[in-house]
Amino acid sequence: MSEPAIRIFDTTLRDGEQSPGCSMNLQEKVALARQLERLGVDIIEAGFPIASDGDFEAVEAIAKEIEGATICGLARTGEMDVERAARAVESARHARIHTFIATSDIHLEHKLRMTRDQVLAEVDRAVRQARAAVEDVEFSAEDATRSNWDFLVEVFSTAVEAGATTLNVPDTVGYTTPKEYGDLIAFLRERVTRGGEVAFSVHCHNDLGLAVANSLAAIRSGARQVECTVNGIGERAGNTSLEEVVMALKTRSEEFDGLDTRVTTQEIYPSSRLLSSITGVQVQPNKAIVGDNAFAHEAGIHQDGVLKAAITYEIMTPESIGRASNELVLGKHSGRHAFRDRLEELGFAVEGEDFERAFKRFKDLADAKKVIYNEDLEAIVADSVQTAGDRYLFESLVLTCGSDGPPSAKVALDLEGGRVETEASGVGPVDAIFKAISDLTATGSELIQYQVHAVTAGLDAQGEVSVTIEEDGRRVIGNGVHEDVMVASAKAYVHALNKLEWHKARHAPDEPKGI
Q1: Tens digit of pLDDT for each residue in 44-100?
Q2: 459 with 379: CB under 8 angstroms?
Q3: Which long-range contacts (CB under 8 A, 24 or more apart) does 406-413 make?
Q4: Which of 1, 297, 304, 416 is the least crowded, having the fewest Cβ atoms under 10 Å away?
Q5: pLDDT digits (tens, 9 = 90+) for 15-57
Q6: C-alpha–C-alpha distance, residues 420 and 411, integer Å
Q7: Where are the domains positioned within the chain?
Q8: What phi and psi, each to the nearest 5 degrees, are found at residue 332?
Q9: If DSSP codes are grouped into helix, strand and coil, which group holds residue 423?
Q10: Largest Cα–Cα separation, the chain
């Protein structure tokens, strides 16, 4: 496989997962990693192995699962961090360790409380340790854009001499601007010792809305790796959006001297949809490339132009990013083979009991709903895939409500193999359902947010519910889909509780953050 001009380093599973509520369990991470491989990213940063047992398990599992992409584990420069990252990726066919330390005077004084000489010594030791474990080592200077440029030259030169093969220049707090960032990359490429022998990488946050612009400016100045996430998710305002960088290079190739990536662009939309279904975080309608309105034309003059020639107002086609038309795809007479083929077209690989559950849900929905859209199938899959080891399984709901008295809900769950049920009243039907589930699970979590929206148009649309809960500072999002919004609410709450249980069992209370 030829080396791409621009390498795509996807950090959805590491930096993206640090978005509040976007925590994923092991099965979800592996499913997303498989889709990232289909997408064609070059490097998958699978997690931060020292952060928790859950992160270690995920990186280790993805390293064993993925064949084509390089699997990367993040590590601070501490010996234990690097050692744990090395163990997590040791099964990977192509392994990378990504180690980092802060270099700005702000971080040195207030966070690390180290001198510049101490930082240089730490960089040298950590990179050498990582290089002894793997051949592919990336070094990052955290908060590089607020660091002294001459000191960055010293830091990166030390990293190269110690064996780093990729140098990352993170805009950790989204502070820089395109010209400034482009100038910094050019400055470093010219002055870092043996800088021509290594790849320069960029990792931009979007606090000022400039992450993509900064990344493209860096490419103009010679950067050859872009660190990004699907849908641009990440801490605070997010990261560089993978789909925006890839399609900017593809659409405006002449502006970037023909530089391109190895990404299969038709897998962009399926990747976006899969991430949304896993995290429960919907893409904003006006989001570039993958938002619901990205290819919508409401103004009459625009509609007229598009009907005459799409190129009048569309600089790319929906098909180029794998966006299928919103039309009837299957009916109640469709069989398993047609159902499986359609799921594969949408980017889902569902097998065994999960497939049978999804197929039954499809048949039930086909009996109840006149028109089934692609979005319906995506929702069915998200709702049907059961995570191995889930502590709670939703079984049934009987709800009584109206104007004559307080609503009551009778809920039954499968709790570790045994059926339990109870009844509770509330100020509204959702409150009654959640109180009953809370009683059955004895949860100490707090409900932070409850959202509901229709999966598609029409009075017979499925309802998709998203529930955000928090306990001891850990926030998770659960999803549920059903024709009955109250059933979807119960499923979403149970899903959130299962995710919370999984993370509580595997995560340390004080998790380190990344670059």
Answers
A1: 999 999 999 989 999 999 999 999 999 999 999 999 999 999 999 999 999 999 999
A2: no
A3: 406/432, 407/431, 407/432, 408/432, 409/433, 409/435, 409/436, 410/436, 411/436, 411/437, 411/440, 411/490, 413/437, 413/440, 413/441, 413/494
A4: 1
A5: 998 887 788 889 889 999 999 999 999 999 999 999 999 899 9
A6: 8
A7: 7-279, 293-323, 328-384, 392-506
A8: -70, -15
A9: strand
A10: 79
Give the length of the chain: 515
pTM for this structure? 0.85
Amino acid (1-letter code) at residue 179: K
108 close to 119: Cβ distance less than 8 angstroms: yes
Domain 7-279 has CATH 3.30.420.10: no
Query: What number of other Cβ atoms are within 10 A of residue 419's Cβ?
Result: 11
Locus of tokens 């020639």: 309
Q: What are phi and psi of 346, to 5 degrees?
A: -85, 0
Q: In a 3-state reduction of DSSP, which class is residue 410? A: strand
Q: What's the number of CA atoms in the CB half-sphere (13 Å) around residue 491?
A: 24
- How many CB atoms are located within 10 Å of the residue 263 CB? 25
Q: In the numeric block, which tokens belong to residue 308?
A: 């005459």
Q: Please give the CATH topology (third level) of the domain spanning 392-506.
A: Double Stranded RNA Binding Domain (3.30.160)
